[in-house]
Design brief:
By secondary structure, the chain is mostly helical. Helix content is about 40%, strand content about 10%. The chain has a three-stranded antiparallel beta sheet, with no helix packed on it. It binds heme C (HEC). The site of heme C has 23 residues, from helix 3.
Length: about 190
Amino acid sequence: MRRIVLALCAGFVLLALWALRAHAGGSQEAVERGAYLVSIGSCNDCHTPWTLTDKGPAPDFSRLLSGHPEGMRLPPPPAMAPGPWGFIGALSMTAWAGPWGVSFTSNLTPDPETGIGAWSEDTFIRALRTGKHLGGGRDILPPMPWEWVGKMTDEDLKAVFAYLKSIKPIRNRVPDPLPPAPPAAAAKSAS
Ligand code: HEC
């Protein structure tokens, strides 16, 4: 009798672990596919901060996909003269100024407060399909290529999400975007 109870308990524990794993975002296979999609989808170009190394600028993988570093204070972007040059990026590849104001790349690690740790899979997919922050808020700003990233199949987006949930959580609060300079100020600084 005791054996049966023990076997049943073990069964329940295994079932619970399996359910937790499914809830946490999927199989090892999905995580591996997600890692591949993130690497060819160029997410590291913008979401992993770059630093200057002896071999030139390179992504700092110790801060993998953690977005614009909160401690990196930037002066206001230089005014752009009217003309064909339209936007400017920081050397970290995590801050971008243009007609939309200044955008900072998001923390895609599973930190619950500053990353996507508290996001559901549905929120993630909706954000990338609609171009709305958290799937229903303000517009997601350039240069985030959500229109193209959002063209992945549901299965692929789920795999990307599963991979992002599996990487090291990094606590890094990315600043909110800054609005464009008012036209008067822009005109004054351009003259
Ligand atoms: C060319 C730069 C660039 C690339 C490449 C890029 N991103 Fe982004 N991403 C950004 C910027 C900038 C933001 C912040 C935009 C904002 O604050 O509105 C952002 C925001 C996001 C967000 C947050 C959306 C929200 O609801 O606020 C997610 C999720 C995201 N990116 C996922 C990805 C994934 C996945 C990839 C790779 C497949 C990727 N990004 C590639 C620049 C980029």
